[in-house]
Amino acid sequence: MAVNYGEHAKEQIITRDTSEPPANPVLFTKAPTTVIGPDATFHVDPSVSTNIDWEVELGVIIGKKGKNITENDALSYIFGYTVINDITARDLQARHKQFFKGKSLDGSCPMGPYIVTTDEITDPQKLAIRLSVNGVLKQNSNTSEMVFPVKRIIATLSLGMTIEPGDIIATGTPSGVGAGRKPPEFLKPGDVVDAEVEGIGVLRTHIA
Q1: Among the four 70, 151, 181, 205, which has the fewest Cβ within 10 Å?
Q2: Which pTM was predicted?
Q3: By residue range, what is the domain housing residue 175?
Q4: pLDDT tens string 134-180
């Protein structure tokens, strides 16, 4: 989902006409061909995009089928958690005025390095979340800063729509993305990106 941290809402104005946090969860999908594993390589194709950005996110893995799930029951539908880097082509995102195309380039959803089950992470809203590029810290926050907590996201997604075991929800990124910097910063071949969520581990992605 998009703009789920208040500070990121202030820097995320590419597809929105306001810097205020949204009143309801902003949802989108990523194509299946985006998924790659830990220590994998994302290839930059300058003929497609020259504005490749990073976004560390907590990934929520659904463990059982459900529909019209209440917030009170939502966490019981989770199998575990992982780290996601929601790599985004900002120029495509701006050109198309929506999220799907800019977030669905092949290999643009690194995920890992582990799945940590809910018996080890009992509260997904108390986790440090950070990202560095070439060892330089770029994002540093906590999942307690989410505008919409995990239970609200699941309840919203499942309203009138069945969620299935194996579905993975990327819960939004905090501030510190490259497009929000002055001047903007984007990934280039040779960069190494380390995305981390407390209690899960470090997801490393190589840029080529």
Answers
A1: 70
A2: 0.93
A3: 6-28+40-207
A4: 999 999 999 999 999 999 999 999 999 999 999 999 999 999 999 99
